[in-house]
Design a protein that fits this description.
The chain is α+β, with helices and mostly antiparallel strands. Helix content is 37%, strand content 18%. The strands form 8 sheets. A 5-stranded antiparallel beta sheet has the order 4-5-6-8-7, with no helix packed on it. Strands 21-22-23-24-25 form a 5-stranded antiparallel beta sheet. Helix 3 runs antiparallel to helix 4. It starts with 7 loop residues before the first strand and ends in a 7-residue tail after the last helix.
């Protein structure tokens, strides 16, 4: 059991009378609309995770904070903003994250300059207002849901970039919401816009077979249009309970198994495109479930054309070192990404502001997806997920030139010199570059970008000056250099290693911990990838449908000839030669395969036909032993009935002149069919039962009724 760390108390409110009061802030807090300007009140949830309980609404706490000298910078900033806010839409609540951060900084003894914070915050908001006023008239989509006027503006939690700017949410009169993103490297319009994007091209040319997430995203009309973008706000998908512990619940997307299968196939399609074009930083918070599909939406797509060779470079699966809150989480957890630095914790003496050392938990997850049977992630749906990856990959290979043309346009790509956690942790980088230091000094997480075509590393203030030779974006990825089937194998290996589905089949796909077999009926082929942590191998076979048809044809002809040969007293040498030619053809076909054709791959009838080919073949001793080994392995995986292995084992032993093991082969003695010699006859029924066969006595009756007294079953 994990013992939560003892909280470090930063401040206890003491009743006091403040010298001045930001009236509208106090009114908003008391009315329940401005409490986010202070750290939240939390409760300790399952596993010691801190969970949001409510916003501060106690006037004594507010009065104590306004009277406390250490919070003078917070009170000063609140008073300045109180006087500045004369807009019914942009209110003090729009600055709540800033006020909360400044309050926490004051409690930690790191009070900022309130005048500088006020100047930066209002400059950023005035820039937003100018852009909004202009773009509502000249660049707004004709979507009734996004129609104005704007009813409210809410600032996004988290770090700021580019002169203290934040993502804002605009609640529109039409009922929808719009995200304002004040950063130059917005790649959503290049990849996810409904028209002219990579995703829209693939959706169109697939005829509906592939469905990648597209959503409205657009630029403004001013000279500064490259410095920001707008996009529709993605609302959550169908909600249900992911975790429950007493009164505590974690909610998220919960789907029926049928809908979950479709969802994870679509997620596989997105995964393939992300890997092909180096879409990165797709971790929880940047990849959200939404829409009526629902689908995963990459809502913060800034880092693309990243040449990292592992699937983990996308952020969709873990790399073993960073957060477990990846984009495609396979476990529902009480903890969440990020969280406040400090919070109010109730106690016997009232509220105390304490530094958070425990994990933070949200009431909802926008990333985790479960089915109604309680299964989380794509592991149980690995065949559907892999099928989605494959179909999207084949489509991209087919339209490589058209995709490259879409990416020839000029757009900005964010470059991460370090992770956000390195900048915002308790130990900020001790060796920042001049460009990093300048941004850190004004309270921003450093933000760098480059043109998709290369060129100097930039900040919003100009060239950064750092070396850029080995930084993204990668020109090869932009041209589709990764679009070959060997590269897909790397993504498949990494995806299945994370999901650990075991051995599953469906959708024309078979997956094991170290392989994936995908049938491609359209191309008349089947692809088999096998791998280790160090390498991936690809082998091409006939498609399952074609392979099944060939096996059934050979079996049908062999059976017809064998009946005729039996009825002729086994004396027709011409028929023997024809049968030998057929079984030789069948063995040559089986020799081409990398694995045994199981019922999940080719169907039950064709799988049984393959077994009969091995039993009836003359010669080919080494190949038949290899086939038996593959059959045995498939049986042990639960992919092949034991009787198929029993029949083939006995056929090979009888052919070698040895005693059979399971008593499946008979010969006539004095006009009556009897079993050929059996090894350890007393244990034969136990061995037969282990292979799913009835007793030898029962089987003897069946054989004699079927064949009468003539012939042999070997």
């Amino acid at each position: 059991m994990t013992v939560p760390p003892v909280p470090e108390t930063l401040w206890r409110p003491v009743r006091a009378r403040p010298s001045r009061t930001p009236a509208r802030l106090v009114e908003a807090i008391l009315a329940g609309t401005g409490g986010a300007a202070l750290p939240p009140v939390v409760r300790v949830g399952p596993g010691g995770v801190w969970r949001f309980d409510h916003h501060v609404g106690d006037p004594d706490v507010i009065a104590a904070a306004l009277a406390e000298p250490r919070f003078a910078a917070w009170a000063d900033l609140a008073a300045r903003l109180d006087a500045w806010c004369d807009d019914p839409v942009v209110t003090l609540a729009s600055f709540a994250p800033l006020l909360r951060e400044v309050f926490t900084a004051c409690a930690l003894g790191r009070a900022p300059d309130p005048a500088a914070e006020f100047a930066a915050a209002t400059a950023a908001m005035e820039s937003f207002q100018r852009r909004l006023d202009r773009d509502l008239r000249t660049a707004w989509p004709r979507d009734p849901r996004l129609a104005g006027p704007v009813l409210a503006v809410e600032a996004h939690d988290g770090e700021t970039h580019n002169h203290r700017q934040r993502v804002l949410r605009l609640r529109m009169a039409g009922g929808g919401s719009v995200a304002y993103k004040p950063r130059p490297a917005g790649c959503e319009d290049v990849f996810a816009a409904p028209r002219g994007s990579v995703f829209s091209l693939l959706n169109r040319v697939s005829g509906g077979a592939v469905r990648l997430p597209v959503f409205r995203t657009w630029r403004g009309k001013g000279r500064d249009r490259r410095a920001y973008s707008w996009s529709e706000w993605i609302e959550p998908g169908p909600q249900g309970v992911l975790l429950a512990d007493g009164d505590e619940e974690l909610r998220g997307t919960v789907l029926s198994p049928e809908r979950a299968g479709t969802f994870w196939r679509r997620a596989g399609e997105l995964t393939a495109v992300a890997y092909a074009f180096g879409l990165s930083d797709l971790i929880a918070g940047n990849l959200l479930v939404g829409g009526d599909g629902p689908l995963y939406y990459p809502v913060d797509l800034e880092v693309v054309l990243n040449p990292g060779t592992a699937l983990a470079a996308t952020g969709l699966v873990p790399d073993g070192h960073g957060t477990h809150h990846v984009g495609l989480e396979n476990t529902a957890r009480w903890c969440a990404v990020d969280g406040p630095l400090a919070a109010f914790l109730p106690g016997p003496g009232g509220l105390a502001l304490v530094r958070r050392r425990s994990a933070w938990g949200e009431p909802d997850s926008r990333t985790v997806v479960a089915d109604t049977e309680g299964r989380v992630g794509y592991g149980p749906y690995a065949p559907a997920f892999v099928r989605g990856m494959f179909e999207a990959w084949v489509l991209m290979c087919r339209y490589r030139e058209e995709l490259a043309a879409r990416l020839e346009r000029d757009f900005a790509v964010r470059v991460l010199l370090r992770s956000t956690a390195e900048y915002t942790g308790d130990d900020p980088p001790g060796d920042p570059t001049p460009a990093e230091a300048a941004q850190l000094a004004r309270g921003d997480v450093p933000y760098f970008f480059r043109s998709a075509g290369g060129g100097p590393l930039l900040t919003v203030d100009g060239p950064a000056g750092e070396a850029e030779s080995d930084l993204p974006p990668d020109a090869g990825l932009r041209a589709g250099a990764r679009l070959d089937l060997s590269s897909l194998g790397i993504a498949l290996r990494d995806a299945l290693a994370y999901a650990a589905p075991g051995e599953l089949a469906g959708h024309g796909v078979r997956v094991t911990p170290d392989s994936a077999v995908i049938d491609w009926p359209e191309g008349g082929r089947s692809f088999t990838w096998t791998w280790s942590p160090e390498s991936v191998r690809l082998h091409t076979d006939p498609a399952a449908g074609e392979l099944a048809a060939r096996l059934l044809r050979l079996d049908r002809l062999d059976t017809s000839l064998r009946v005729e040969w039996t009825e002729g007293g086994f004396s027709d040498t011409a028929l023997e030669e024809k049968m030998r030619a057929l079984t030789d053809e069948g063995m040559a076909l089986l020799a081409e395969l990398d694995d045994w054709p199981t019922p999940a791959w080719v169907g039950t009838a064709a799988a049984e036909a393959a077994g009969r080919l091995v039993q009836h073949a003359d010669g080919h001793r080494e190949l038949r032993e290899r086939c038996l080994a593959r059959m045995t392995a498939a049986m042990e995986r639960g992919e092949l009935p034991g009787k198929d292995v029993a029949y083939t084992t006995d056929a090979l032993r009888v052919g070698d002149g040895r005693s059979q093991v399971y008593g499946t082969k008979f010969t006539p003695v004095d006009g009556v069919l009897v079993p050929l010699p059996i090894e350890d006859p007393g244990g034969v029924d136990a061995r037969r039962a282990a292979m799913g066969l009835g007793t030898l006595a029962e089987y003897t009756v069946v054989i004699r009724n079927r064949f009468g007294t003539g012939g042999t079953t070997s």
